[in-house]
Design goal:
heterodimer; A: alpha/beta; TIM Barrel; 8-stranded mixed barrel; 6 helices; 29% helix; globular; B: mainly beta; 4-stranded antiparallel β-sheet; 3 helices; 45% strand
Chain lengths: 244, 455
């Protein structure tokens, strides 16, 4: 069943009420964690609690994490990728430990997104370093490995196709497509479009596209970015069991 | 791996994926006569450097830089670089860092290029004892204010005992077998003196477990390093009362290991590529959250903050660039919100000018340079607006668009060259375009490189 959600670099407590009222109540929010240039959930324990409280109040209860390292780094070495994944994991653990009712997904599969913006090139070395660290990360030393490396991108974008990069390097479990983004501004969570996300078909990978950002703030003049999935995202996100 | 490394040997290396291309600004200085005179001869064309991934997905073919370039077309000069090259404060030198890892030791090679000619000006190699090819090494270089000393912070990440485990793929329903272990990171310091080709260090800071990423900047006396212990390695309770370890700022006198001071530095973890700066008036700065400038005393690390007006976070992450201008002012631009400011460190960091402009179509992707202010401050150049994808010039006093260069091909970045000319980077091909200050086409060529940075 199709579900809708939002993603934003803004603080949830600043934007969720207006977004809910205007575009509909979300099933999930995608929020930025460190490393990101600004506005991460993890900047303090009180801030993380406030963000999760807003997530709950919006009716979502699910929180999907994304990190947005400096984009020029994504052309770099395995050490660059590993360093950004190391930071991301620390941010995830920090927020998890600060927010009492924030739980790992029941299936122990938490999709962790890397933000790959248009005009940025992803190297196989960077992706290998980033994904290997997350996929093998031992959560709290408990011999549990719930982090699943995933990529937000234009699947067939990039000179070598982003899908080809993750296809050859391996270690990617899901794609969140930011294309197509034109022609869908009239849709919202109250009126989801037919599923039409770009995927890796013909671009060198079989990694599935499981989410689609169909309406982008800048293109559509919105206050948040609007997303949808076909029922395979929320089971792989952080889950709030109560209002923080 | 010991001893000096010849340029030929350095350029032969193809261990990595990133590459450095060089190209030439064909035009003599058009508008900025002072800069042309200081370069020695207006006839000597300046060069620009492109850093990124070869478009064929392989390690780059390497060719040497010729004499005086007769075409705009950039030439590959190095590959397998361990870090993005950095330019010296006087713009005269480009530093390249290479890394060679062995079974028992590793080696760091630093090569200085004369930025004008592309010729090797200095080179040296130093051994990192007991750092092996099983380690991951993150290299963070920065020039000291003397433009001859390169300070390098090396994050050495080492994996412990590895084990094989099965991971369930929820989409395919299959089981994936992986191998991994816990990583621990500590830092080394290294200083290279370009006048003698000698090194100080490596010095082990003994700070493991730390996050690999750091922020760095160096003035004429000290290297300043912002770092943080690895939060996930230290926190063990599900409690809101246990915060992350504090960010620390340490000042190391050049070529030494012992910090002059170490202080707690408020603000976000130093892991996001926060821009740093040495102010002409003294002191150093770190831009955090893309919207707040932290101003530190170089003598004791005390800090004050300057909020940038109107730099508010929106739905997309906001990358802000920070550049020191020859007149001592600091130019900060946030393309994703269409704002820029000019601040004056000599006048209590007051904002002396604000600029608003259309948000570029590719505001968030690499390269980060989307906006430039010309030396006289009367023209603002902005890349790739959604409406036409071109490069536009704005009169800063009126805010009016004065001229534009459009080809129907979207541009992703621009850089203002010392001559006053502009270098534009279009995504398709990709294509490098050289424009005069009034945005007339001077030359253009396709390059075999996905450009991550224009240096």
């Amino acid at each position: 069943m199709a579900q809708g959600g939002y993603d934003t670099a803004s603080y949830l407590y600043d934007v969720y009420s207006a977004a809910d009222a205007k575009y509909g109540s979300p099933s999930y929010w995608v929020r930025y964690f460190t490393p990101s240039p600004n506005g991460p959930v993890d900047q303090s324990s009180s801030h993380a609690i406030s963000e999760c409280r807003s997530d709950w109040d919006s009716g979502a209860k699910h929180l999907s994490p994304i990190s947005s390292p400096s984009q020029s780094r994504l052309s770099g070495t395995s050490a660059e990728g590993m360093a950004d994944a190391q930071t991301f994991a620390s941010a995830l653990v920090s927020v998890y430990q600060w927010v009492a009712p924030l739980n790992l997904p029941a299936n122990n599969v938490l999709y962790c997104w890397l933000d790959l913006e248009a005009s940025t090139s992803l190297s196989t070395a960077y992706w290998s370093g980033w994904s290997s660290y997350l996929n093998t990360y031992n959560w709290e030393g408990l011999q549990s490995r719930p982090l699943y490396a995933s990529l937000y991108c234009n699947p067939c974008g990039g000179s070598n196709h982003n899908c080809s990069t993750i296809g050859s390097a391996g270690g990617c479990f899901a794609v969140w497509s930011n294309e197509p983004e034109s022609g869908y501004c009239g849709y919202s969570l109250k009126n989801l479009p037919p599923w039409h996300a770009n995927n890796c078909s013909g671009c060198g990978s079989t990694v599935p596209t499981i989410a689609w950002q169909f309406a982008e703030r800048g293109v559509c003049g919105l206050t948040v970015n609007v997303d949808m999935n076909e029922g395979t995202l929320t089971s792989n996100t952080f889950l709030l069991s109560a209002r923080p | 791996m010991s001893g000096g490394l010849s340029r030929r040997r350095f350029l032969r290396r193809t261990v990595g994926v990133a590459a450095l291309f060089v190209g030439a600004d064909l035009l003599p200085s058009v508008t900025n006569r002072a800069i042309a005179m200081t370069s020695g001869s207006p006839a000597v064309a300046a060069r620009f450097y492109l850093y990124g991934l070869p478009t064929d997905g392989s390690a780059a073919q390497i060719s040497s830089v010729g004499g005086e370039p007769s075409t705009l077309r950039p030439t590959a000069i190095a590959t397998g670089l361990a870090a993005r090259p950095v330019r010296s404060p006087d713009s005269g030198t480009l530093a390249l860092v290479g890394l060679e890892q062995g079974q028992s030791d590793s080696a760091v090679t630093i090569t200085y290029l004369d930025a004008s000619s592309g010729a090797v000006a200095a080179s040296g190699t130093v051994i990192l004892p007991r750092v092996t090819d099983q380690d991951l090494i993150l290299v963070e270089p920065t020039f000291a204010a003397d433009s001859s000393t390169l300070c390098v912070v090396l994050a050495v990440s080492r994996v412990g005992v590895t084990q094989e485990f099965a991971k369930f793929d929820p989409v395919s329903g299959s089981i994936v077998t992986m191998r991994g272990g816990a990583w621990t990171t500590g830092h080394l310091l290294l200083f290279f003196d370009g006048t003698t080709g000698s090194f100080s260090g490596p010095y082990d800071l003994g700070d493991a477990p730390a996050l690999a990423r750091v922020n760095v900047v160096a003035d004429k006396e000290s290297l300043f390093v912002w770092s943080i212990q690895e939060p996930a390695a230290l926190i063990r309770l599900k409690s809101a009362d246990v915060g992350p370890p504090p960010v620390q700022l340490a000042a190391y006198p050049l070529h030494t290991q012992a910090a002059r001071f170490t202080v707690v530095a408020p603000g976000p973890w130093p892991v996001n590529g926060e821009p740093t700066i040495v102010f002409a008036t003294g002191g150093v700065g770190r831009l955090v959250n893309g919207s707040t400038l932290q101003v530190y005393s170089a003598s004791d690390g005390s800090m004050a903050t300057v909020a940038l007006p109107g730099f508010d976070v929106t739905a997309k992450p906001m990358s802000t660039t920070m550049d020191q201008r020859p007149d001592g002012l600091v130019f900060l631009a946030a393309p994703s919100i269409g704002r820029a400011v000019l601040i004056n460190p000599q006048a209590a960091f007051n904002v002396v000018a604000t600029f608003a402009y259309p948000i570029p179509a590719y505001a968030s992707g690499a390269p980060a340079s989307k906006v430039a202010l010309n030396p006289s401050g009367d023209t603002l150049y902005v890349v790739g607006q959604s409406s036409d994808g071109g490069i536009a010039a704005y009169d800063t006093s009126s805010g009016q668009r004065t001229t534009a260069f459009t080809t129907g091909r979207p541009f992703a970045a621009l850089t203002l060259l010392p001559s006053g000319n502009l270098l534009g980077l279009a995504l398709e091909a990709p294509r490098v375009t050289l424009l005069t200050p009034d945005l007339q086409l001077a030359a253009e060529t396709d390059v075999d490189l996905q450009v991550a940075a224009i240096i």
